[in-house]
Design a protein that fits this description.
The protein is about 65% helix and about 0% strand. The chain is an all-alpha fold. It is found in: Cell membrane.
């Protein structure tokens, strides 16, 4: 039932809702309600803009470290003698 109310697209639906709102709140209260909604939307947009600016500033101030090319490690020196095996390893 709730999903049926999720997308009110017809004009008739909106007219019915408007009539119900007028009956519930009265004609004098509606401008106050809409004014409050307008202020809320304005505050939301202001907050989103401030968040966007903060994010952009943080991206400019803290550039990502670039990967520096690493020099290849020197090859290990090969010894002329084979490594000695300890007696404890044989046991």
């Amino acid at each position: 039932m709730l999903q049926n109310w999720a997308f009110l697209t017809s004009t008739t639906d909106w007219i019915i809702i408007a009539v119900i709102v007028i009956i519930l709140f009265g004609g004098k209260k509606i401008p106050e309600l809409l004014r409050g909604v307008g202020r809320g939307v304005g505050e939301l947009q202001k907050g989103l803009q401030e968040g966007k600016e903060t994010l952009q500033k943080s991206m400019v101030e803290e550039p990502e470290p670039t990967a520096q090319p690493v020099a290849p490690a020197a090859p290990a020196k090969k010894s002329a003698k084979p490594a000695k095996r300890s007696k404890s390893a044989d046991a």
